[in-house]
Design goal:
alpha/beta, seven-stranded mixed β-sheet, 38% helix, binds nicotinamide-adenine-dinucleotide, Ald_DH_N, Aldehyde_DH_dom
Length: 488
């Protein structure tokens, strides 16, 4: 990477691919320019990688796996590399957070929280590298015993989105490396900077060349090659359900394993006996965090009719305190929408909401700001099946839906193609347990929302995908079992 022009703070960063231990240009010679969605200023360029670049990276990863230069190291040696990277991420949190804010439009405060969380995930995976073990059967009769070994799955292709670039990288990469795999990653074409910086951290920490490779570029050029290539054993993908479906289809002929973290339309359900202020705060956070570009966004807020008017009043009062503005300012709660396409998509859903539902607040771009800024928007009188209650909008838009009974709440909550997250607000333990059992989702939060300790797995069911990240199960996505039966 070189840094061009201006002061260190506003310089344009020019990145290169990272293949077989070297930073290199794409064979295409072309680059993607990234402009700050809050100001329009050019902040970075990275190569527009091609199929040839992807193939070169896959060959490097395959060679590294074949000669066991990484998986052949002891787990203690692998763990040490991961701990070193965790420290580098933590020590450079200010720089990494600024880069993520400039590339994505998220607030600097939130980006800083994310970078520190990412460092914590690397530490967790570094510890887990030494704790991985298989199984054994001491006496299977006739002098036989068996070992069940956990072996690295091989070459892993990673494809990541723009909404949480470093966190999502960290939910995949250290676990795959802990398992002993080699990796080729294609980060989002909108936010590739921190992935390339982590490549340098890994190299400095002693990761052998070829074990980790980064090919920036578009999904159709690089992601599609990773998904279909016979030398890639696993694809782990986070992104939209539509792209997930394309990846499954591309992966099918080579029978590679896929791990898919996809979209959501999560219900956040508030009962009359809840702590209403806490529920209102969480409902707002559930749709404004990261400008609503959050896979677990609580974009459907279900409220028991007996408190609906009170809930609306408190919501309106509290949402006024949300400040939309300069992502670098500590006063901003919401930053900029990532690009024009996403901005227009959200505005189109707001138009559908205006046609079908009642607008409680927001609904407009923020006047006087140069970038893609939208007011937090709340619709009420929403019925299940309305556009804003059905589709993932990925913007700061809340659909308020009334219900009477827990049974009705569960039916509405489950009336979606997705099954990622959900929230329940109640002071009744019985109700919480009944609802937690009734809801079909990968995550159920009770009296909290968007609360993701590193130790617990996250992931979806239904069209939100399959496989798990974080927690002790994450490493298993990158391992295969080998049974060894021994006759004495
Ligand atoms: P996207 O699906 O458009 O793109 C994600 C990645 O896939 C990008 O790197 C893109 O270049 C690549 N890609 C696009 N087409 C491809 C193809 N045909 N083959 C291979 N790769 C291809 O998603 P996005 O807009 O970047 O991210 C938003 C989506 O991600 C939302 O739906 C959100 O819910 C989801 N998401 C899910 C989770 C989760 O944990 N479940 C977390 C964050 C985001």
């Amino acid at each position: 990477m070189n840094v061009q022009g201006g002061t260190a703070e506003n310089a344009v960063r020019n990145y290169r691919l990272f293949i077989d231990g070297d930073h290199a240009a794409s064979e295409s010679g072309r680059v993607i320019e990234r402009h700050n969605p809050a100001t329009g200023a050019l902040v970075a360029t990275w190569p527009a990688g091609t199929a040839k670049d992807a193939e070169r990276a896959i060959a490097a990863a395959r060679a590294a796996f074949a000669d066991r230069r990484w998986c052949g190291l002891s787990v203690a040696e692998r763990s040490a590399v991961l701990f070193a990277v965790a420290d580098r991420i933590r020590d450079n949190a200010a720089e990494l957070a600024r880069i993520e804010s400039l590339e994505s439009g998220k607030t600097l405060a939130q980006a800083t929280d994310e970078v520190l969380w990412a460092a914590d995930i690397w530490r967790y995976a570094a510890g887990q590298a030494r704790a991985q073990h298989g199984d054994s059967h001491g006496n299977l009769g006739d002098g036989k015993l068996a070992l069940v070994l956990r072996e690295p799955a091989g070459v892993v292709g990673m494809i990541t989105p723009w909404n949480f670039p470093l966190v999502i990288l960290s939910q995949k990469l250290p676990f795959a490396l802990a398992a002993g795999c080699s990796v080729v990653i294609k980060p989002s074409e909108l936010t590739s900077g921190t992935t390339l910086i982590v490549a340098s951290y890994l190299s400095d920490a002693g990761l052998p060349a070829g074990v980790f490779n980064v090919v920036t570029g578009y999904g159709k050029d690089v992601g599609a090659v990773l998904s279909a290539h016979p030398a890639v054993d696993v694809i782990t993908f986070t992104g939209s359900t539509a792209t997930g479906q394309a990846i499954i289809a591309a992966a099918a002929p080579t029978m590679k394993k896929t791990v898919l973290e996809l979209g959501g339309k999560s219900p956040n359900i508030v009962f009359a006996d809840a702590d209403i202020d806490a529920a209102v705060d969480a409902a707002i956070k559930g749709v404004v965090l990261n400008q609503g570009a959050e896979c677990c966004a609580g974009s459907r807020v279900l409220v028991q009719y007996s408190i609906l008017e009170d809930f609306k009043a408190r919501l309106l009062e509290k949402v006024r305190r949300v400040t939309v503005g300069d992502p670098l300012s500590p006063d901003s709660t919401i930053g900029a929408i990532v690009n024009e396409t996403q901005f227009e998509k959200i505005k189109a859903y707001i138009a559908k909401g205006r046609a079908q539902n009642t607008l409680l607040c927001g609904g407009e771009p923020v006047a006087g700001l140069p970038g893609y800024f939208l007011q937090p928007t709340i619709f009420c009188d929403v019925r299940p099946g309305d556009a804003i209650a059905t589709d993932e909008i990925f913007g700061p838009v809340m659909a308020l839906i009334g219900f009477d009974t827990p049974e009705e709440a569960a039916i509405i909550a489950n009336d979606t193609a997705y099954g990622l997250a959900s929230g329940i607000w109640t002071s009744s333990v019985d109700n919480a347990i009944w609802m937690a059992r009734a809801i079909r989702a990968g995550i159920v939060w009770v009296n909290t929302y968007l609360d993701l300790p590193t130790e617990v797995p996250i992931g979806g069911i239904k069209q939100s995908g399959y496989g798990r990240e974080n927690g002790r199960f994450a490493i298993e996505e990158f391992q295969v079992l080998k049974t060894v039966v021994i006759q004495d």
